[in-house]
Design a protein that fits this description.
It contains 9 helices and 14 strands. With 363 residues, the chain is an alpha/beta fold. The radius of gyration is 21 Å and the shape is globular.
Length: 363
């Protein structure tokens, strides 16, 4: 059960964080480990903060098994900035192929079109992004610089069960809403990035994991210096004042994940709690999921009733019962429960009981 006067927060981001992590942050707020300062106050050039940043990177490398030939970068701006930064940096031939499986990959695709010849090689928009298209034999162009996916679509609730066959081309993946939710073979990708506010920490930063040979200095001379991965790689993510607070909080979450047994253990926990929600939806007469079963996300679970009016009643009912942020994204409506790493199974079980009660009262 939750301690303190807290709610079960099913927000898609900024999202819930582990209570034990929040307690540590609270205890260090006024005086971080004898420094006499809060982390928000200290210089990013200090030895104290450098140790925080170094430990955060090392713990993340250990959690994910990140190979030595990949750089770990902490960049301000979140995932949306990467929609432009990726084509700016990775387009050598000016060609890229995108798989569009939801709102976020669609936005990334449209942004990349400003910078070169960008083609959608597969899409699930014909069925309102309720499935992942077959990616076993995509029409990837020979001169494509990279193939881009959003591995878990936060709004539409789909996730890849198998990575696309890129036919030898670099794979770039937006993992924002499933980052660190399960083991990941980093070597399968040229680049992974994630906005941290969904599953790792506070808003305002992205973690980018990029293979060293993809970091270039021969960019368009008009490329802003901050938009170059080389700028961040050469300066240890401290070209300018970084998001010190986010790095610190993420570092705490990395240590928490190591303490509970790593990503394999986290995946077991995520499967168990998502099953509670999906079993309910599969047996309910009032509520139904909106995604094909084979590609259901463990992190974001969209569902609906028979009408928008009834959806609104459910949102009001659950809020009054202590469950927050179950309203679906404004672009699709309906309902959505985001069950990120920090959401306890008890929270999902309590939500299901609440929804069962609503259904019984509204037959």
């Amino acid at each position: 059960m939750l301690k303190y006067d807290r709610t079960y927060n099913f927000s898609a981001g900024p999202a819930t964080m582990p209570e034990s992590v929040l307690e540590e942050i609270r205890d260090e707020m006024m005086n971080y480990q004898g420094s006499g300062m809060c982390v928000m106050e200290m210089s990013h050039r200090s030895k104290v903060f450098q140790k925080i940043a170094d430990e955060a990177e090392q713990d993340l490398r250990e959690l994910m098994g990140i190979p030595d030939n990949y750089k770990v970068l902490f960049i301000q701006g979140g995932a949306t900035l990467q929609f432009a930064m990726i084509p700016m940096n990775l387009m050598r031939n000016g060609v890229a192929d995108y798989v569009v499986t939801g709102s976020w990959s669609k936005k990334a695709f449209k942004e990349a079109q400003k910078y070169g010849d960008v083609k959608c090689v597969a899409s699930s928009e014909d069925k309102n992004f309720s499935y992942i298209p077959d990616c076993s034999d995509l029409p990837i162009r020979e001169n494509a610089d990279y193939v881009y996916i959003c591995e878990n679509e936060t709004i539409h609730g789909t996730t890849y069960q198998k990575l696309p066959n890129t036919k030898g081309h670099i794979l770039v993946s937006d993992q924002s809403s499933m980052f660190l939710s399960k083991p990941c073979n980093v070597s399968d990708y040229g680049m992974i990035y994630a906005g941290v506010q969904k599953n790792v920490g506070p808003a305002g930063m992205v973690v980018a994991i990029i293979r060293e040979d993809l970091i270039r200095e021969d960019l368009d001379p008009k490329t802003p210096v901050y938009m170059s991965y080389k700028t961040h790689a050469d300066n240890g993510s401290m070209y300018n004042t970084p998001n010190c607070w986010a790095i610190y909080c993420c570092g705490k979450v990395f240590k928490y994940l190591k303490k509970i047994g790593g990503l394999a253990e986290m995946e077991k926990m995520n499967i168990a709690k998502a099953k509670v929600m999906y079993d309910f939806l599969d047996n309910s007469k009032m509520f139904k999921g909106t995604v094909e079963k084979e590609v259901r996300s463990l992190m974001n679970i969209p569902f609906v009733t028979e009408s928008a009016e009834l959806d609104a009643e459910v949102i009001a009912y659950t809020k009054a019962a202590g469950f927050e942020n179950l309203k679906g994204h404004k672009s699709v409506g309906g309902l959505r429960a985001s069950t990120y790493n920090a959401m306890p199974k008890e929270g999902v079980e309590a939500l299901v009981e609440c929804l069962k009660k609503f259904e019984a009262e509204h037959k």
